[in-house]
């Protein structure tokens, strides 16, 4: 994969390869469905590292009934009284499904730990239990893939600035995101400790250099495809039936129904 100093990928090159990879993702989806496989993809990384945009490209042409995005809000009072992993277990895929976690149980290793939302004891318990939990998932047949999106401090700062000025992306910024700037090194140490404990043979971490979002998306999708032994699944043979002859149906008068105004005509 390209490093942080790699040249920006040209747009035409990016779009052509993205479409090819998205076509392969559709083939992967059909294989998952037909084989009854269960695929879990974890997206983690710093704020503004490009996780959300990559997830959008992954799911753009997939069937939302088979491929789900899970982005959980902060836990409720009841969920805080559960076993930590419990709220994530209910979102795991059934046979024939793909689940993409836009952040995951690794919240405890990152933001919860750095910002003091969990105790030191809870953090240490997570680091001990997480490898066991993930080994159980893999042992049960789940295909688990974990990606860490790595962005430099200067690039993150620039992305934050652009979001502040862009009314379409302003919602992506929260006070917690901005506060992460002042905790850069603390997040770095937390990430390093997390990798030491959870980069296991059964479910290794894959680092995605994401200063160039185009390059990061292609690299991540291509890698995911390379790790799953999918193959072509012949689609069902479909034919359009002949349209039957009219039996005298007449459409009701237009003035009996309320139509959306033709805004496009004013452009």
Task: Please explain how this structure is put together.
There is one protein chain. By secondary structure, the chain is α/β, with parallel strands linked by helices. The protein has helices spanning 11-35, 51-59, 77-80, 86-89, 111-114, 120-139, 153-165, 175-179, 184-198, 213-226, and strands spanning 38-45, 67-70, 97-102, 143-150, 205-209. A five-stranded parallel sheet has the order 2-3-1-4-5, with helices on both faces. Helix 1 packs parallel to helix 10 (213-226). The longest helix has 25 residues, at 11-35. The two termini are 44 Å apart.
Order of helices and strands: HEHEHHEHHEHHHEH
Distance between the termini: 44 Å
Multimer state: single chain
What is the helix tally?
10
On the 0 to 100 scale, the average pLDDT is 94
What order do the helices and strands come in, and which of them pair?
Blueprint: H1 11-35, E1 38-45, H2 51-59, E2 67-70, H3 77-80, H4 86-89, E3 97-102, H5 111-114, H6 120-139, E4 143-150, H7 153-165, H8 175-179, H9 184-198, E5 205-209, H10 213-226
Parallel strand pairs: 1-3, 1-4, 2-3, 4-5
What's this, in brief?
This protein has helices at residues 11-35, 51-59, 77-80, 86-89, 111-114, 120-139, 153-165, 175-179, 184-198, 213-226, and strands at 38-45, 67-70, 97-102, 143-150, 205-209. The chain has 267 residues and is an alpha/beta fold. It has a 5-stranded parallel β-sheet with strand order 2-3-1-4-5, sandwiched between helices.
């Amino acid at each position: 994969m390209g490093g942080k100093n790699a040249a920006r990928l040209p747009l035409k090159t990016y779009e052509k390869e993205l479409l090819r990879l998205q076509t392969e993702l559709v083939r992967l989806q059909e294989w998952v469905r037909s084989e009854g496989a269960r695929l879990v993809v974890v997206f983690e990384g710093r704020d503004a590292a490009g996780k959300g945009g990559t997830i959008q490209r992954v799911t753009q042409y997939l069937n939302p009934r088979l491929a789900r995005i899970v982005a959980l809000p902060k836990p409720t009072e009841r969920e805080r009284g559960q076993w930590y992993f419990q709220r994530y277990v209910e979102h795991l895929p059934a046979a024939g499904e793909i689940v993409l976690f836009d952040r995951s149980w690794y919240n405890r290793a990152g933001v919860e730990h750095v910002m003091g939302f969990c105790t030191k004891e809870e953090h240490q318990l997570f680091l001990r239990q997480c490898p066991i939990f993930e080994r159980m998932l893999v042992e049960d047949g789940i295909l688990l893939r974990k990606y860490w999106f790595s962005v430099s401090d200067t690039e993150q700062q620039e992305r934050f600035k652009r979001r502040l000025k862009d009314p379409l992306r302003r919602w992506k910024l929260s006070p917690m995101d901005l506060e992460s700037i002042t905790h850069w090194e603390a997040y770095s140490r937390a990430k390093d400790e997390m990798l030491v404990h959870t980069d296991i043979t059964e479910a290794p971490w894959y680092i995605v250099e994401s200063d160039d979002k185009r390059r990061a998306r292609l690299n991540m999708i291509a890698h995911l495809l390379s790790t799953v032994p999918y193959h072509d699944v012949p689609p069902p043979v479909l034919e359009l039936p002949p349209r039957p002859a009219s039996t005298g149906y007449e459409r009701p008068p237009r003035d009996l129904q309320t139509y959306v105004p033709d805004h496009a005509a004013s452009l």
